Amino acid sequence: MGHTTAQPSTSPRATRRLRARQVDGLLAIALVVLVTTGFASWLIGTGWVRWVTAVHGIAGLAVIVLIPAKLGGSVRRGLRRGMATRWLSMLFGVLVVATLATGLLHSSGLWYGVGYWSALWTHIVLAVLTVPLLVWHMTSRPSRVRRADLDRRAIVGGASAFAVAGATYGAVELTLRATPLAGGDRRFTGSHEVASFDPVEMPRVQWLNDRAPETPDERWAVSVAGSAVALRQLADRARPVVAVLDCTGGWWTRQSWDAVPLAELVSDLDARSLRVRSATGYSRLFPAADAARLYLAVGYGGMALRRGHGAPVRLVAPGRRGYWWVKWVTDVEPSDRPWWLQSPFPLD
Q1: Whether 269 contacts 308, CB under 8 Å
Q2: 163-175, pLDDT tens digit by residue?
Q3: Would you state the pLDDT for residue 246?
Q4: For residue 14, what pLDDT is reported?
Q5: What is the C-alpha to C-alpha distance for residues 65 and 301, in angstroms, rounded to an integer?
Q6: Strands 239-246 and 251-261: what pairing?
Q7: How distant is the alpha carbon of residue 316 from its chain centre?
Q8: Which residue in 299, 294, 324, 295 sits closest to 311, CA to CA?
Q9: Which pLDDT band, with edges at 50, 70 and 90, does 334 fall under?
Q10: Distance of alpha carbon 78 from its chain centroid, rounded?
Q11: Residues whose CB falls within 8 Å of the CB of residue 218, separated by 6 or more in sequence, listed in order
Q12: Cβ distance 7 to 68 under 8 Å?
């Protein structure tokens, strides 16, 4: 891509000295890290995802730091050449900026979205639209890494960009915690708290195209390891279990669930996994060893579940993201299939 040095005045001095090829390489690294960590943060519900979300935020800010150098280098030359694909490149750039902007709006709490359509889902949809254009952009302009690209200028410039991004991330987090903005109270997954111990106000959302079944409670049948379990039996055995539901839509809530551990219902089970299935066909595989940490809930806070929250019976899976909390459970069946041999996100 030539050896023109970008000179935008808003970049750190070290990045202004980078050659266009070096800027492209650093942007590619930052964007790949963004996509990878964003995907991983959806999968993980335990505390160490805090570091994944931090790296995700720093990579996003690194892209912002490098954008002026990109605009002053290859973008300016490409627009001058009038290439036929420049409109796709411009669309790619717009989507990247929009994805970054919605991520900042969600993390700061400045915008939650519209109704149940959250700012985070907008961020995710834009990111998904960006990925094919990122692949096209990288493959349509293949360039072999040259030794000259990995010189001191690249190392110092790259380190400078990510150092500025890291310092900015830390400053933003400290600022959010010192202000009334909701972003200062985000959970380690990046989600905002909603309606804890107030189940009536808890959002009612489904995974993708899932729909609440209309089967009345009196006709509902639950099968656990081949044995029928009555709803009344579950209600009689249920006890309070405080657990956090962390939705991939960007919110979390802590509720006291009236629930029964699966271990009490599937004792002495010789199986590798447990498949929990919904009346809609939606299902998830869990390690059989986790049966003591999985629960069938029939209520919350002493009240019966509402249909939008999974009534008459749903799974409670502490430490896992919301899409693991299967609603409208009809079957819990043993399986010899390893729990990890399934799609990362449910597709059925």
Answers
A1: no
A2: 999 999 999 999 9
A3: 95
A4: 64
A5: 48
A6: antiparallel
A7: 19
A8: 299
A9: very high
A10: 34
A11: none
A12: no
The predicted model gives 309-323 an average pLDDT of 95
Closest CA to 192 of 203, 206, 208: 203
- Collapsing DSSP to helix, strand or coil, 259 comes out as strand
316's CB contacts (< 8 A; 6+ apart) are 241, 243, 245, 257, 259, 294, 295, 296, 297, 325
Contact 286, 274 (CB under 8 A): yes
Tokens of 54: 């931090």
Phi, psi of 152 (to 5 degrees): -60, -35
pLDDT (0 to 100) of residue 139: 83
30-83 pLDDT per residue, tens: 999 999 999 888 888 787 888 999 999 999 999 999 988 887 666 666 666 666
Q: How far apart are CA 254 and CA 267, in angstroms?
A: 28
Sheet holding 222-224, edge to edge: 227-229, 222-224, 329-335, 273-278, 283-287
* pLDDT of res. 10: 46
Question: The dihedral of CA 131, 170, 24, 5: what is its sign?
Answer: positive
CA–CA distances in Å: residue 347 to residues 174, 184, 198, 210: 39, 34, 31, 10
CA distances from 215 to 30, 234, 281, 298, 305 (A): 48, 18, 14, 16, 15
Kindly state the average pLDDT of the residues 215-223. 91
Rounded to whole angstroms, how far apart are CA atoms 204 and 210? Answer: 12
